[in-house]
Amino acid sequence: MPRHRSLVPIRHYDTQDELLADMAALEPKGMRAEAGGLLSPDSGWTLMVHSTDVVAALDVLGVAGEPDLQTDVEPCPRCLSTRGSAPLPPYLLIGLGVAFAVALALAQFRLWYWLAGWAVVSGLVIRRLERAHHWRCLNCHFTWNTWAEDERRAAARRAAPE
Fold first, then answer.
1. 37: left (phi over 0), alpha (psi -120 to 50) or beta
2. Domain containing 65: what range?
3. Is 25 helix (H, G, I), strand (E, B) or coil?
């Protein structure tokens, strides 16, 4: 199984020594822990454990509650970093606004054939903008669309043998 499906990021560290100390604390308990997200010295390190061991790992590390990573940020599908993800501009809303403004201008001048052509062209462009990338990882510069990534994961789960 690929690494990103079974491992979950639970903590972020600024120093490698802190990461190694927590990995050493998890090892005697039989929990598989890995470091992830290190793509530049400034990005720090992320501790990842198997998805079934998240609660037990947090108990061993003495962390109460949920993982300390930011929950309002989408994790990167490539490097699993949540610290460096940033939303991109809402291209779909910008496209809808431009399409509506041009349509209003064409209707005001009663250019009906142009308006019909604009409706077709803008509909195709807006359909393409629905699939535009919504997030960019500041660590690995990978861009992705949240909806498309969710659909890809669902398709992979359906195709996986049980």
1. left
2. 3-87+133-159
3. helix
